[in-house]
C-alpha cells in the first residue's frame, strides 16, 4: 500500500476554474498517471483501489473528475462571473 501515497493526492488536485484550461489539466493528469504507472509499477491492489476511487468520483460527478466535465455542473455558468474568477 506504499504506492497509494503517490496516487491518492492526484484526486485532490482541483480542476481549474477557467474552462479553457480543462483540456490542458486533463492531459497533464493523464500523462502523469501514465508515466507513474510505467515508471513505478504500483501493485495491483493499489492500482485497483485508485481506479475504483477515480471511477466513483467521476461517476458521481462530485466535481473533481479530470477525465471529463459533468453536465449540469454549475461551473460553466459561474466561470464567467467576476466575483468567482476574480477578473
TrEMBL record:
Family: Belongs to the BLCAP family.
Organism: Scleropages formosus (Asian bonytongue)
Broad class of the protein's primary localization: membrane
Record GO cellular component, one term: membrane
InterPro entries: BCALP
Keywords carried by this UniProt record: Membrane, Transmembrane, Transmembrane helix
UniProt xrefs under SMART domains: BC10
Highest rank taxon of the organism: Eukaryota
Localization per Swiss-Prot or TrEMBL: Membrane
Sequence intervals crossing the membrane: 20-38, 45-69
Protein task: Acts as a tumor suppressor; induces growth arrest at G(1)/S checkpoint and apoptosis via RB1-dependent and p53/TP53- and NF-kappa-B-independent mechanisms. Modulates expression of genes involved in the regulation of proliferation, cell cycle and apoptosis.
Protein name in the entry: Bladder cancer associated protein
PANTHER family named among the record's database cross-references: BLADDER CANCER 10 KD PROTEIN HOMOLOG (PTHR13259), BLADDER CANCER-ASSOCIATED PROTEIN (PTHR13259:SF1)
Pfam families: BC10
Amino acid at each position: 500500500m506504499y504506492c497509494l501515497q503517490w496516487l491518492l493526492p492526484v484526486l485532490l488536485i482541483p480542476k481549474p476554474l477557467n474552462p479553457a484550461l480543462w483540456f490542458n489539466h486533463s492531459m497533464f493528469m493523464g500523462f502523469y498517471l501514465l508515466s507513474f504507472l510505467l515508471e513505478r509499477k504500483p501493485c495491483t491492489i493499489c492500482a485497483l483501489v485508485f481506479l475504483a476511487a477515480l471511477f466513483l468520483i467521476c461517476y458521481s460527478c462530485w466535481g473533481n473528475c479530470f477525465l471529463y466535465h459533468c453536465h449540469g455542473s454549475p461551473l460553466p455558468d459561474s466561470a464567467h462571473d467576476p466575483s468567482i474568477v476574480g477578473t
